[in-house]
Specification:
heterodimer; A: mainly beta; 5-stranded antiparallel sheet; globular; B: mainly beta; 7-stranded mixed sheet; 4-stranded antiparallel sheet; 0% helix
Chain lengths: 112, 113
């Protein structure tokens, strides 16, 4: 059973658009929610992360919005660029553990 | 030099063969992980190790075994490979702590015929 559900599976936007990737979870024991970015032929790399005590975190053009009551969180990419074309994974971790549960991934394509 | 290295990067093998994938890290991290990535399924944890004497099963450990030979080395073995183990395999490392950022290697693409 998928612990973290991610959508959409793929996304195509024009340069400058704002792609949004959504994730949902059920386990209220999760206390840390990172997003990883993966380029073709590379391993995933941490992009940005949030804890459930805040509703939003912004780092550069990347923003996480977190809705604790709905058990949902999303990644927004402002002013998207062709270089942002990659696969994005959301993840969640249970408090006290180190294991991450990953979503199924979203392949983003930004068209010039 | 890469902090987390995996060998081999690509491997084609036949059903029933024993395969070992190796991971080395120079980050000095105590925690190491093995994941497999399949299209549409994301990354799933196979095994993890918090130190040399600590090995734990992940979500999908059946058909796999691991060995933590040293703090810097963590190997994944498929004792008798089967076609549905065809996947991209990633090793990752982290330190203990609240943020738990995991650093991934470049991956090994394994094909079982």
């Amino acid at each position: 059973q998928q612990q973290v559900k991610q959508s959409p599976q793929s996304l195509i936007v024009q340069k400058g658009g704002i792609p949004i990737i959504n994730c949902a979870y059920e386990n209220t024991a999760f206390d840390y929610f990172p997003w990883y970015q993966q380029f073709p032929g590379k391993g995933p790399a941490l992009l940005i992360a949030i804890r459930p005590d805040v509703s939003e975190k912004k780092e550069g053009r990347f923003t996480i919005s977190f809705n604790k009551s709905a058990k949902q969180f999303s990644l927004h990419i402002m002013d998207s660029q062709p270089g942002d074309s990659a696969t994005y994974f959301c993840a969640a971790r249970k408090g006290g553990a180190n294991n991450l549960f990953f979503g199924t991934g979203t392949r983003l394509t930004v068209i010039p | 030099d890469a902090d987390v290295t995996q060998t081999p990067r690509n491997r084609i093998t036949k059903t029933g063969k024993r395969i070992m994938l190796e991971c080395s890290q120079t980050k000095g991290h105590d925690r190491m992980y093995w994941y497999r990535q399949d299209p549409g399924l994301g990354l799933r944890l196979i095994y993890y190790s918090f130190d040399v004497k600590d090995i734990n099963k992940g979500e999908i450990s059946d058909g796999y075994s691991v060995s933590r030979q040293a703090q810097a080395k963590f190997s994944l073995s498929l004792e008798s490979a089967i076609p549905n183990q065809t996947a991209l395999y990633f090793c990752a490392t982290s330190v203990a702590g609240t943020n738990n950022e995991q650093f991934f290697g470049p991956g090994t693409r394994l094909t079982v015929l």
